[in-house]
Predict the 3D structure of the following.
Amino acid sequence: MIKLYDFPMSPRARKVRIVLAEKGLQHEKVTVDITKGEQKKPEFLVINPYGKVPALQDDGVTIYESTIILEYLNDQYPNPPLLPADPGQRARARVLMHYADNPYDGAFARLVGEVLFKPKGQADQSVIANAKQELTICFEHLERELGSNDYLVGTFSLADIGYAAWAPLFGPLQVEVPTHCPRVSAWLDRLKTRPSIHAAG
């Protein structure tokens, strides 16, 4: 059986949970409490030497790094497919996944560090302001990428998942989609209605 090393509040682990739900894959969850530093314990470092969640084991294969896990699951369990068949669109999906993993994820990670992990009143407001400005740039980019599509590459795919995974933290981090990005707002609302995203928490 698939074993997922998980932390419920981790957006990167949530990405994997979404794919598992989309594909209807039964799995065992092993909670690694990152608030207690369990991801740095020697027994977990054997599984993921980077000391991060998520990690996944499947039939003797161990994978870490969330996006690589997503691609593995899509390759190993191809139905329903979560990447386009067309090579050009498939490449575009991967570019958008890379964008989610870098500027988008990075800006959110800085917000989490300031807003959720620092004692009240000690957050660096300049870091928060810069991160929110970076997110505005990301939302504007996604507005253009969406065009008239319901999802980033036409149908729901791995390209959408990295963005959906952060949505539950918009409220706690006081992130709002700018009013001049209505397609992004509609897309995020659409993603929230998917059973897999609801199931992933």
Observations:
- The domain at 87-200 is CATH 1.20.1050.10 (Glutathione S-transferase Yfyf (Class Pi); Chain A, domain 2).
- The longest strand covers residues 2-6.
- The chain is about 55% helix and 10% strand.
